[in-house]
Amino acid sequence: QVHLVESGGGLVQAGTSLRLSCAASGPTFNSYVMAWFRQAPGKEREFVAAVSSIGTYPYYSDSVKGRFTISRDHAKNTVYLQMNSLNSEDTAVYYCAAGSILSYQDALSDKKYDYWGQGTEVSVSS
Asked: Which residue stretches of the chain have pLDDT < 70?
């Protein structure tokens, strides 16, 4: 069992940065692929970024590639999402997820993840 708690969201202006954190508890955290998804008002939840269990092989959606960076700190059981050059299209609730993911294709699907946090809201004003 893994319990996830996100933090770091807020209201920011376009062009600025935020760093989201996802604190995980549970003995098997280090064995899971960790990911960030987001859901904008009136839209379906979409994949943002994922990182392998050992912290390598980050993978990003095209919409955030080059602006967002996902990382994980095994000592702190925490996953981060550094978000730079934010724009209004990044406004959403951001969710952290953990799962036993076997392929890049599976990493894109929220149905493949076993554990979810409660979400943290990011609002970007233009």
From this structure: none
